[in-house]
Design a protein that fits this description.
Chain lengths: ~270, ~210
């Protein structure tokens, strides 16, 4: 039996926390069935519920020792918590536009902050522009700002990705949670290709509509990652991630000429496509 | 041109100015988003600046009608409106960069940036409505009717400009292409008004000589 245990209003939306049996979800709408933004199992909060968050965590195989991480879009704070669990000394900047989401994450999803895990209430694009001015560098940037209903168009343009690329350290990777079904898909691919050239995507069309894009300044080949993969299998299993299985969903997307227009700050009708 | 055709032309121009004002306002959100996000306060800044500029434009446009109102002056307003929109396409980026690096708070940043980008062209576009009323009104009894009709036409232009820009133009064209089109449209119509006025006064001269 579903039960809404908390309703929080914000400048942007209404946020609901809903308990169903053992799972607790953060939702932006109670009416639509699949509107869960973030879920946890109350009895085992470390286990990941969504396939796409498993994909995002699996992307660690491309850079297994991130020291400085930037997460755009907090949700319940699951990714931040899990990274902290894996690497207790990690430095994480969480950026979330909506203060109400941060509050709900802390109160209901056990979102953990410390002097190295910090949250900024800001638009992701503004944070990235300011970080560029400060010449910050990140080993891992996770972009999880799309909630399935509305796409912040200024976070899906060539200029934005170039700015993000400018924040990546030499071995840094960008991990972006996007959709695998929509007309936007090809425009999105074209835009990522325009900035990063080749990239990896992780998707399982059978189980979810998500595509996790992994892009990097210097994209490693999967063959070169055996040592990292071996070392991650065990630690990732605590989050209910079967890395061996997820590797099967990873594919290299080669940069090739596309008939689809690249999205730019000048042309970004992401919500109309 | 006869009186009726003459009036249609002025309504057409008023329609176009309404169309352009809201078209540009909508693109304003696009232009500011990379620097200030697309939160409600960014829209607040844009709408504030447009309302403020329009109010001043109405005031100045009304004042201007006291001084030898003519279709050629009316056309000049359009030409200026078109020309002052051009920097929006050419200099938006350096202006936005400057404001972004100097003001941390995105509320005041977006307010100042909107002011720098939209104030002048919108004031000039705002001058068009009262000036149109002056050119159309011939007697006191009809003045309310004419003003009503004019608001109807220009606000309908605004509605269609909003819809076209947000539903279709941004899907088909780049932001700057749309702005150039507004510039070109306003300048050409202004030029046509100037031309029309010249032809009419020459025609009158010929008539008077007979």
């Amino acid at each position: 039996m579903a039960q809404v245990i908390k309703e929080e209003r914000s400048l942007y939306r209404n946020i609901f926390v809903e308990d169903i049996g053992d799972s607790r979800c953060l939702k932006f709408s109670v009416k639509r069935k699949n509107s869960s933004q973030s879920c946890i199992y109350k009895s085992a909060p470390h286990k990941l519920v969504f396939t796409y968050t498993k994909f995002v965590m699996s992307a660690l195989m491309f850079n297994a020792q991130p020291e400085k991480v930037l997460i755009i879009g907090l949700g319940g704070g699951t990714l931040s918590n899990n990274l902290l669990q894996l690497y207790p000394d990690i430095h994480i900047d969480n950026v979330e536009i909506d203060p109400a989401v941060v509050k709900v994450a802390s109160d209901y999803f056990d979102f953990k902050e410390n002097d190295k895990v910090v949250t900024y209430i800001q638009d992701g694009r503004i944070f990235i522009k300011r970080a560029l001015l400060k010449k910050s560098q990140y080993d891992l940037i996770i972009l999880d700002a799309f909630n399935g209903e509305y796409i912040p168009e200024h976070l899906l343009t060539k200029e934005f990705l170039e700015e993000t690329q400018g924040l990546l350290s030499e071995r840094g990777i960008l991990v972006s949670n996007t959709f695998s079904t929509s007309r936007l898909y090809h425009h999105e691919s074209a835009t990522y290709h325009a900035v990063f050239g080749d990239f990896y995507s992780i998707k399982d069309l059978q189980s979810s509509g998500n595509r996790v894009i992994v892009a990097a300044k210097n994209l490693p080949s999967i063959d070169s990652l055996q040592v990292q993969i071996e070392s991650l299998k065990q630690p990732l299993s605590q989050f209910d991630i079967e890395l061996e299985k997820i590797i099967g969903f990873v594919q290299l997307e080669k940069n090739s000429p596309s008939e689809y227009r690249v999205l730019t700050d000048q042309y970004s009708p992401a919500n109309l496509l | 041109m006869n009186k009726l055709g003459h009036n249609y032309f002025i309504y057409l121009l008023a329609f176009t100015s309404g169309f352009s004002i809201m078209g540009v306002e909508l693109l304003g959100g696009r232009i500011l988003a990379p620097y200030f996000g697309s939160s409600v306060h960014v829209w607040g800044s844009i709408i504030t600046v447009f309302m403020l500029s329009l109010s001043l434009g109405y005031l100045l446009g009304g004042r201007l009608t006291l001084k030898q109102p003519s279709v050629s002056r009316y056309g000049t307003i359009f030409v200026f409106a078109g020309l002052t929109l051009l920097p929006l396409a050419y200099y938006a980026t350096p202006i936005l960069e400057f404001v972004f690096t100097h003001i941390e708070d995105s509320r005041y940043g977006s307010l100042l940036a909107s002011m720098a980008l939209f104030f002048i062209p919108t004031v000039i576009l705002g001058m068009i409505s009262p000036y149109s009323v002056r050119l159309l009104v011939t007697n006191q009894a009809q003045s309310g009717h004419v003003a009503g009709l004019l608001y109807f036409v220009s606000t309908l232009g605004s509605a269609i400009g909003t819809l076209m820009t947000s539903f279709y133009l941004v899907l088909w064209f780049e932001v700057n292409t749309i702005i150039f089109s507004f510039c070109l449209l306003l300048t050409i119509l202004g030029g046509l008004a100037l031309l029309l006025d010249k032809l009419e006064s020459r025609y009158e001269q010929v008539q008077n000589q007979r």
